[in-house]
Amino acid sequence: MNYSGRKVLVTGADGFIGSHLTEALVAAGAEVTALSQYNSFDRNGWLDDLAGDVRSSVEIVAGDVRDAYFLRSLADGKDVVFHLAALIAIPFSYAAPQSYIDVNITGTLNALEACKAGGVGRLVHTSTSEVYGTALFTPITEAHPMQGQSPYSASKIGADHMVEAYARSFDLPAVTLRPFNTYGPRQSERAVISSTIRQVLDPACTEIRLGDLTPSRDFNFVRDTAQAFLAIGAADKVEYGMAYNAGTGHAVTIGEMVEVVRKITGSNLPIVAEEARRRPEKSEVRLLLAGSERLTGATGWTPQTPLETGLEATVAWWRDRIAHGEHRSDSGFVL
Asked: Distance between CA atoms of 149 and 80, rounded to whole angstroms?
């Protein structure tokens, strides 16, 4: 994973995973261009929270992946492009599915065209375990059928297939990384772990309000996920057009995760499962459990952070944010 002097573009760098990946790339010696979604407030999402020496090492550019010409100018001559930009909030996808087509599919098409025209050495596209839907078998390998159980997952399925098509049709050096549920510092309160921790630590909360507690998830600490990106971006043995899962191979229910958080924090707040927080019945994904042997075999990557250790680090981050009055949710529109 030698990135010293390599020219790298990260789309979605202002988001949760993107900001951690940007940090990891700087630490590995890469010359990083970080694409942040343009806004009129002169803010760059979580990139603004990076340490000063890290942030000063990064070229931050504001823009939008839906602008094909703009993206083409950024990708030109890059050694690696990590494409993380996506509209990711599952609940909002039921209300505004067209937005997910525009960002997740058309935005990915623009990234593919930009890499094709710009002679990029490798494109790493970001998928999601949600493309598998409820598991038909476990562990879930890359051979598992894709099931569009939400407009969000359907848009990511479409984007994944475009990456495969460009690798097959144009010999584009493109590969897909499919992280399972990532958590950690900087994650929005839209995510179940962040929501749980924030409620547990908030003195104004008298209970923990969540949705369905019975689905099981393969939770991955964000720094492990960032290392998976670095590994697949540099490994010699990856097959272009293929997808690679990144997960721990261990699943817990939402309820079990909450109990670990309560143990770490010493909380005895009651849990309330609210009907309004549940997904539509046929849209809920009951179990996600990763089989990551393909990624490990190609890159040597393995997760390093046990769930309780990762949750302890995330709780510590939330304590600090709340103590400084800085906790906030992002919009889910990470470009």
From this structure: 31
**And the tokens for 249?**
């191979």
Superfamily of domain 7-252+276-334: NAD(P)-binding Rossmann-like Domain (3.40.50.720)
Helices 68-75 and 107-118, axial angle in degrees (round to 10): 40
Looking at residue 91, what DSSP letter applies?
Answer: H
Model pLDDT, residue 79: 98
The catalytically annotated residue of 152, 166, 183, 244 is 152
User: 270: cis peptide before it, omega within 30°?
Assistant: no
Total-model pTM: 0.93
Chain segment 160-180, per-residue pLDDT in tens: 999 999 999 999 999 999 999
User: What is the rounded distance in angstroms from the CA atom of residue 315 to the CA atom of residue 318?
Assistant: 5
The three-state (H, E, C) secondary structure of 22-38, written as one string: HHHHHHCCCEEEEEEEC
**Beta-carbon contacts of residue 322 (< 8 Å; ≥ 6 apart):** 198, 201, 202
- Quick one: angle between helices 192-201 and 254-265, nearest 10? 30
Annotation marks residue 3 as catalytic: no
Among the listed residues 83, 93, 217, 231, the one whose alpha carbon sits nearest the alpha carbon of residue 159:
83
Cβ 287 vs Cβ 216: under 8 Å? yes
**Lowest-confidence segment of 115-124, 235-244, 245-254, 267-276 by average pLDDT:** 267-276
pLDDT digits (tens, 9 = 90+) for 6-44: 999 999 999 999 999 999 999 999 999 999 998 888 899
Contact 113, 172 (CB under 8 A): no
